[in-house]
Amino acid sequence: MRFKQNTTANVVIISVGTIFFINIIIPLFLNLVEFDLKITIISILGNLLILSTIGLTIVDISYLLLKKKNYILLSSLTMVLAISSFLLLEYSFLSGFFDILYVWSYSSTSLPILYKLVAIWAGESGSIMTWMVFNSIAIFLFRIKNQDKDDNVFIHSVIISLIVSTVFLVILFFLNPFNLEKSPLFFAYPNGLGLNLLLISPFMIWHPLFTFIAYAIFLIPFTVVIAESLKRDSKLLNSYQQKFFEFSLKIGWLVLSLSIGLGGYWAKVALSWGRYWGWDPVETASIIPWFFISAYFHTKLF
């Protein structure tokens, strides 16, 4: 299989066209078929999109390993497929397709539209899916403007980023967010189990969103540092990637600070936990990278 390098304009056209077809044309077609068939097609399509994302990522890793070629089109298509699976699940939430177990578990007909949108990250599989969308965007933006085979730090950092994404995409596939299996409680709550009342808060919109964005942004400096440690005195050669690395540290630190601050305040005033901080695993996983990046900025001052 051979891929030709594509201009940015061609990549954008292909990406927009793919998103348009998957998220506009297919839903319009689904409105023409009976409900049960529509739900079945959505479930199959959702799982197919996740599998295709995994497959394309593995192909991308292979080309980077074997040929050291940065095929930006592959990265673009991976991003498009990740976004499309996310939008398909959002479509299911907004349409009230409670035959999908994940939608039934975290939504209901009485839930306001805004919270139907954010209910996607109320559970584990939707959270991973959201995170992988931002991961794919961050990786795509990082890979622009570099076709240098000798930029080993860049090549290795992208490979590590893609491996991390692949692991979580495989986990997402087995979690099966498009599962049509019905809960034993389905007939007692045919209109959806609904979102936990503690999560119906404006903080539910911003705190998780900022967390996913920060984790995705930090993926780039995390993998670059690992790649640099593989060989002594190695560094990024392209000025764009060097600036992206510095920018991702700054914007990632800012977004994660907002996430931690909002999460702590939410825990104290909205969730009635009676504390701003409790050192549970989720909180600790957020504060550790914040400490490291804060220390990095301090060392840069001396």
TrEMBL record:
Q: Which family is annotated?
A: Belongs to the CcmF/CycK/Ccl1/NrfE/CcsA family.
Taken from the UniProt entry, a GO cellular component term is:
membrane
Q: Which residues form a coiled coil?
A: none
In the record, what terms sit under GO molecular function?
Answer: heme binding; heme transmembrane transporter activity
Annotated GO biological process: cytochrome complex assembly
The record, for Pfam families, names:
Cytochrom_C_asm
Please list the residue ranges annotated as the Cytochrome c assembly protein domain: 124-299
Instruction: List keywords of the entry alphabetically.
Output: Cytochrome c-type biogenesis, Membrane, Transmembrane, Transmembrane helix
Q: Which residues cross the membrane?
A: 12-33, 39-59, 71-93, 113-141, 153-175, 205-227, 247-267, 279-297
Name of the protein in question: Cytochrome c assembly protein domain-containing protein
User: InterPro entries annotated for this entry?
Assistant: Cyt_c_assembly, Cyt_c_biogenesis
